[in-house]
Fold each of these.
Amino acid sequence: VTARWVVDATGPVQLLKRKLGLERQVEHTINAAWFRLGGGLDLEQWGAHDEGWMGRMEAPGIRYRSTNHLMGQGYWVWLIPLASGPISIGIVADPRFHKFDEIKELDSALEWLARHEPQLGATVAERRDQVEDFRKVEDFAYGSERVFSPDRWAMTGVSGVFLDPFYSPGSDFIGYGNTMITQLIERDLAGEDIGDSVEALNGIFLFQFDRALGAIYTNNYQFWGNAEVMVAKVLFDHIMYWSILCLPFYNDKTGQLEFAGKVLPHVQRMGMTRLAFQQLLRDWHDLGEREWSNAIVSNSAFPGVWDRLTDLHKSFTDEELEARYEANAEIVEAVAVVIFHRAAAQLPGRPLPGDARINPAKISLHPEKWEKDGLFDEHGLTLEDALARAPGVERALLDESALSS
Ligand SMILES: Cc1cc2nc3c(=O)[nH]c(=O)nc-3n(C[C@H](O)[C@H](O)[C@H](O)COP(=O)(O)OP(=O)(O)OC[C@H]3O[C@@H](n4cnc5c(N)ncnc54)[C@H](O)[C@@H]3O)c2cc1C
């Protein structure tokens, strides 16, 4: 068979990558096991007698339609209702905390659930005859030395790279990859020389992959069960995701190099803050986990994050889009400074003055390095500035009144 282009979409088989010896190991290691439970599962039954909990939804009887995650140290469990009737239940675990042996067979996975998520474990044990199947996968984050080639081949989907199922980035990367590959093939078939563009898009795609893997997942599963840290992370990650990955995609700018160059300073600004922020989360977790009860946060009550989502339904001119990037960078920095103050308040001696002007790209929980790192900066944000830039942010973070005494 001959063809002008070959696009590999063989998924985990990774036909082309293996054939060409382009496999690239990544530092992140993750395992998963999952099964379907016939008849589905309505989580509401677990709290049907709790009026406060029931009152949080607009109406009873709709919770079962949502995907839910149960989180703990080193793992999360997905509960995904399927349109066909069953619910998909999956364990995703970092082997530093939960060995693959503990989840790789149905029996051991059910024992694991009984230990770590006893309410779910008991439900599944009672209905074991309704377990329809069982699947598993070991060490399934991986990279590739290259995904698009001037020799007219490309890899899309998980035949190329895979990060982690948390936040479902798999479909996103299929979207970016297919968009870029389509552009390249169309331009090649139109007779253009695409050599430089192939290299540039290959670099951008792999850069996005590496950045997402490093910032969001690698060496982070230790705080997956720390409610305070994780709520801050999910908020920040969503602002970043909607700001720099979804916004260009929805405006047909994915893979548009000229546009990417124009907004690069704003993207770099957000990227620098994210780098410092993700280390801050790890260090915050190391300060000790606090117990919370009966807490709820609402991201839709914080326009700083919600507007980033509703922006995706609007269309912008290039100038408006650039201005949006700048506004997004300001929100990202403000949120980082607010969360930094929360985390630093837990440092012994509370060394951070409330009126200090903070450089968001230099936040850390190492007071001994603050001066040297350039944390204090006359152009930086005070806490008051940050709260004014991100009004309502406290509604998207845990409220101290929910601290267990
Ligand atoms: C545990 C787990 C959970 C996940 N959760 C999510 C999630 O929630 N959201 C998300 O977006 N992504 C998730 N993913 C990733 C998800 O698998 C991918 O996003 C998506 O399925 C990848 O699509 P794909 O087409 O690249 O590969 P696949 O879905 O694997 O499809 C590849 C296809 O190629 C076929 N094939 C292979 N070799 C050949 C050949 N030689 N000739 C012809 N056909 C061939 C295979 O049979 C298969 O049908 C998850 C992955 C795992 C492992």
Amino acid sequence: MPELPEVETVVQQLRPLVQGQTIVSLRVLDPRLGRLPGARLRQRRVSTVTRIGKQVALALEPRTGRSLQRRGADPGWIGIHLRMTGRLIWLPDERSREPEHVRARITLGRGKLVFADLRRFGTIAIGARRIELEPAGVDPLSDQFTCERLAQLLRGSAQPLKVWLLRQDRLVGLGNIYACEILFGAGLDPRRVAGRLRVGEIERLHEVTRAVLLEAIDNCGTTFSDFQDAHGVTGSYQRYLKVYGREGLACPSCQAPVRRIVQQQRSTFFCGSCQARSRR
Ligand SMILES: [Zn+2]
């Protein structure tokens, strides 16, 4: 499942290819995606490609001239959520072979963007305004993610910290991998009660969350230099990870073996010494 850094990488790689292009058609091949207003997307120019939470979002330029009156209800945003197995694949010309499991196809003036998705959990949302695609949680790379906001979100929670970090209605885009890496970076025990962190610990958590995500985006960018690979490869970035998937291996800071426990049916990897409960 792609986490925030992978989605951001897809966005950054798609942007120069798709930005400024005009949509020729949007074709839905999988009825499970629902009815999308394909006709109203025709001849619309993509002003930019950006990330909204974990969605890859295409912003459309407002129509000009006669049809301007309809602008309020006109589609302004296309948000593609990759979920478990969704991939966005860029095909530069007619001769490029489409992958398997294509569920939708956006044909542009030059090239095609296909949405392939083996397990079909991915979604495409169309909204008039950006806010319609905004998720409930706070994006940890946005300006809204301040230390005060994090403290506010944590307040009163009785959940273990690691479980809390996965809540998409609190922070958007963290999955199992980066939740473990962030807690290691912050030196916090994943079993700590989320609502009971001290001010200094919240500050550390805030700082490390951004740092880990930004570093992961850098690593994704260099690992997947080729666009096609960006969506076909999973796991090769794991060599950058410090604790995730490393049970029994030496902690990169203190050499103690990395531990694995299960929290809400998901593995948590941590260093029992660097992330000791009593550590101040
Ligand atoms: Zn350690």
